[in-house]
Amino acid sequence: MVDEYIYVVVGQPAYVIYDTVILPKIYKDREVMEVRPEQIYYFPNASDRSYIFTSITAINIANKREEPNVLTVMMGETGSLYASRENLYITFHDKPNQTSILKVRIDRGQLKFEAKGTVLGTEINQFSMDEYEGYFRIATTTWEGGETWNNIYVLDEKMNIIGNLTNIAIGEAIDSARFMSDRCYLATSVAWKDPFFVIDLKDPRAPKVLGYLKIPGFTRYLHPYDENYVIGIGRDENNNLRISIFDVSNTANPIEVSSYVIKGEWVDTLALSDHKAFLFDKQKEIMAMPVSIIDGLRWQGAYIFRITLDHRIDLKGRISHQEESGRQDPSRWVKRTLYIDDVIYTVSEAKVRMNKLGDITLIGDINLS
Q1: Predicted local confidence at residue 30, as pLDDT
Q2: How many CB atoms lie within 10 A of CB 92?
Q3: φ and ψ at 134, to 5 degrees?
Q4: What does the pLDDT read at residue 326?
Q5: Which of 75, 128, 202, 305 could make an SS bond with 46 (beta carbons 3.0 to 4.6 A apart)?
Q6: SS3 275
């Protein structure tokens, strides 16, 4: 969503029934509008497996009388989506070890195909991509001949490669990536050892590694704390859940300044695969995420942390929705945490629970089922 416009990206397999190509259709109230063939962009030889109609629709949610705008492209299966306020970038993988990027200009509901670029390797998610000062940056991992290595590419407005850094951490693969202004942070892993890289992008034509740190385990999600500190969520060498804070103020020598480990026979969090399950606010000094633990008994709920000004991670409390049922009820698994003023809300399919942000004491519940 940008201002009052929502941009929706949907995919539909391109297939033929009785010599008829089934084209994308737009349904509005009782009207049906088929996207005409001459309106569809396509890339010759865009896939070695299957073709997909990818339709981008711009909808003004403040003015229902404004007709939605649609741009449809036939290409390979889409991968990840990154959006800035001016552009959408959609990846698709038309050949092994190759990522193509579709750039679409967005401007108050108007959609314009801008360019297509191609890089080697494959991205892992939207955090592997970024737009900064007119340049598009992407981090990829290449698998070839039983070997792996990692890459950073910088592309200009026409999606031409103008800078690259390849052969990063040969034999390893990217676990997480985060671009922050003129830096990129990469966590790669091999044999449960996590190199954390600081990469300089001040000169977009000459990216370079400034420094790195090796710690046991791996980091699956990176989140900015500020310009000098980065939060990492992953696992330690014993497969426990590990939350780390990295100090990157000395770019040549990044260090882990604090960590918190949640132990158990089995421990997991949605934040490892869904960044929207992670809550952080520097001003409130709060960090929270859903956690599932098996350690004899099973527990599921939210861990609420305080990150102090000296970057120490303290547990404020735990909130669960399971206690009334006496059993593990999946509808009571906490999936989201959020706050409004000084109240923290935990959300499951069964209820919304409200606790005081200061001491995590219970305020009340809103039952949803």
Answers
A1: 84
A2: 23
A3: 85, -5
A4: 53
A5: 75
A6: helix
d(CA 188, CA 168): 9
* Single-letter code of the amino acid located at 321: H
Take residue 51 and report the two structure tokens written for it. Answer: 């073709």
Residue 96 buriedness (CB in 10 A; 0-12 / 13-18 / 19+): exposed
Domain 121-263 has CATH 2.130.10.10: yes
Reported as type and span, the H/E element at residue 304 is: strand 297-307
Q: In what order do the strands lie in the sheet with 193-200?
A: 173-180, 183-189, 193-200, 208-216
What CA–CA distances, in Å, run from 183 to 107, 137, 283? 28, 10, 23
State the Cα–Cα distance between residues 115 and 127, nearest whole angstrom: 21
Task: State how far the alpha carbon of 239 is from the alpha carbons of 25, 174, 268, 273, 318, in Å.
Answer: 47, 18, 9, 16, 21
Length of the chain: 369
What residues of the chain score a pLDDT lower than 70? 45-49, 191-194, 324-327
β partners of residue 59: 6
Handedness of CA 159, 212, 223, 278 (dihedral sign): positive
| Residue type (1 letter), 118 | T
What six digits make up the tokens of 117? 């670029």
Name every residue whose Cβ is closer than 8 Å to that of residue 204 and which is 6 or more positions away in sequence: 135, 137, 154, 162, 163
> At a CB cut-off of 8 Å and minimum separation 6, what does 31 contact?
none
- % pLDDT > 90, the chain: 80
Residue 29, token pair as written in the block: 């109230």
Cα–Cα distance list, 160 to 16, 185, 204, 301 (Å): 34, 23, 12, 46
**Residue 236 CA to chain centroid, in angstroms?**
21
- What letters, b where the CB count within 10 A reaches 16 and e where it falls short, cover 28-53? eeeeeeebeeeebeebeebbeeebbb
Residue limits of CATH 2.130.10.10 in the chain = 121-263
